[in-house]
Amino acid sequence: MAGDASLFYDRFDNRRRIIGRLVAITPVRIGSGGGIPEPGAVDNPVIRDAYGRPFIPGSSFKGVWRTFAEQVLGQLANGDRGCCDPLSEPCLSTKSVKELKKEHGKNLQALAQAIYEQLCPACRLFGSPHFAGRVRVRDLLVIESSWPGFYEIRPGVAIDRDKRTSLTSRKYETEAVPAGTAFTFEAIVENATEEEWQDLLLTLFPFIRGELPIGGSTGRGLGRVRLENVKVASVTVSNLRQFLIGGWESISTEEMKDVCRASELNPGGGENV
């Protein structure tokens, strides 16, 4: 399947949509980054949309997902080749790509195949500078009925690491979204091989069991989440016309447990699968 030209992006082969609810088991903190603080404002506010509501950027969820995939997929891959470190030792360098371009010239299909074959399992799924990944994660928007309309404020104080004492002059406040708040989850998987699809499902199970934290201050107990009510819709050539006319609403969804059964995967009876 890896060599099938239809599984690149010049032709449509399949598209899958994974939807669900990401529920905060403990308070969750996704920081808003820089900016000039206003007088009286919280030192470390959470990221908000234009209406002041919390949300989780799709890149934040995808980053945690990819990091976990890099840890485990290399152990599951056939052969001795595992996943790369995309920052220090990428599986395919810019120099290697230039050499491949010289070798294959204007034969773009052969060039794409050569690049794909040298990528590690994580880069094939989540992308690299030289290959568009299979997975796109939408921003996770808050489900307003689950959000109480306010944020938790957690006080903190800086620690002198040498004296092992607190620095009372350096107090700060951290903002977090309260536990119980839920966010919409949607991921689109494009033209994945069956092996890639199984890899993706395997790396999603820990989110369903609530084992992978997200956001900041996870070492202080924040950020534990659980993915619930996971469903999958699939578009292939056989129902492509139906999808183009009616969109995702016209495509039936399957429960996660049924998708796992069809892919010959057993998630171990997780309560939310």
From TrEMBL:
One Pfam match: RAMPs
Gene Ontology biological process terms in this record: defense response to virus
Domain CRISPR type III-associated protein: 22-226
Keyword Membrane: no
InterPro entries: CRISPR-assoc_RAMP_Csx7, CRISPR_Csm3_endoribonuclease, RAMP_III_fam
Alphabetically ordered keywords of this record: Antiviral defense
Domain of life of the native organism: Bacteria
Record protein name field: CRISPR-associated RAMP superfamily protein
Organism: Thermacetogenium phaeum (strain ATCC BAA-254 / DSM 26808 / PB)
Lineage: Bacteria, Bacillati, Bacillota, Clostridia, Thermoanaerobacterales
